[in-house]
Amino acid sequence: MKAAVLHEKNKIIYQDIGIDSCRANEVKIKVMAAGICGSDTHKMTSRWKYPLPAIMGHEFAGYIVEKGGKVVDLNVGDRVAAIPFKPCSACEYCQKGQYSLCENYGMIGAQSFGGFAQYVNIPASNVIQVGEMDFEEAAMIEPLAVALHGVLNIHPQIGDTAAVFGAGVIGMLTIQWLKIAGVKEIIAIDISSEKLAEARAMGCEKVIHARYENVLEKINDYTKGRGVDLALECAGSPVTQEQCLLVTRKKGKVGYLGIAYSDVCLSEAAFESIFRKELTLQGFWNSYSAPFPGKEWKTSVDFILNRKIRLKELISHRFKLEDTQKAFNMIINREEAYGKVLIIPNKE
């Protein structure tokens, strides 16, 4: 088969590579769409710690073309999305059903080959059926479940006001889940005029352009000095990771979905906000719960199929498999504004 193979830091070669027949508990997926995650660009340019050569891609969907002898609940032809997380099922947290906290997990697209290829073999337990869902939408189930994991566990209340820092893909998906959960007003914060316009189109009543406006002053104005009930950080920036603490009301909640790629040093005012306001701070990692893969995944599938989530307009670019390096260069060098970038290994 053809695959986009990572050989070293930011060096992807489009090449022929062998693929085995399925093992007894595996299925072979013909990959129809695979998303580039923000973590992919960071891992492959600075922190890649897995065996090389590698095939990245943990957000992907396609259909089954082969199955192992022990696979009984799936059939050739089934349309599926990959569940990239491989819990050990033995550690303390797996035993509690807290799979996102597994201490010895594996990851498709890291320790094992992922979706930037024409085909991939994965355990049958790591697929979810998607019915007649569009493959591009199915490839976005993983980030949609990540956003839902945060929203479910921060427990928004009907009528809340929320601030979402970062109007990228995770931020936009978080905004949609907050609307569904009954949050009354959502304030989107970003440094991109284009992303803020998209946030307005997604239903945000108010936006703040952080490059030109004072975030604290604007939220203070919008909330009449009270602060927001919820602040969700989806940008992964030290600046916004601190600002969340400053804009949340007394007894409010702060949720961190964005990954920290550098040290976060808090000002005195930000740190004092934690205890003077008695804030609740919570981090959200991955998207899994019991029974595996959890409510996050099953709800995401249901809401996509029932057309209650908008995904297509978040897709900005589609690249052929042979152009995977070009896709990463575009993102890393910020050659163009982008949303969700997809690799299309096979045509329907």
UniProtKB/TrEMBL annotation:
Q: Which PANTHER family match?
A: L-THREONINE 3-DEHYDROGENASE (PTHR43401)
Cofactor(s) needed for function? Zn(2+)
Which keywords accompany this UniProt record?
A: Metal-binding, Oxidoreductase, Zinc
What's the top EC group for this one? oxidoreductase
Give the species.
Priestia aryabhattai
Instruction: Offer an example of a GO molecular function term for this protein.
Output: zinc ion binding
Q: Which family does it belong to?
A: Belongs to the zinc-containing alcohol dehydrogenase family.
Annotated protein name in UniProt:
L-iditol 2-dehydrogenase
Any idea where the Enoyl reductase (ER) domain is?
A: 9-343
| CDD domains per record | sugar_DH
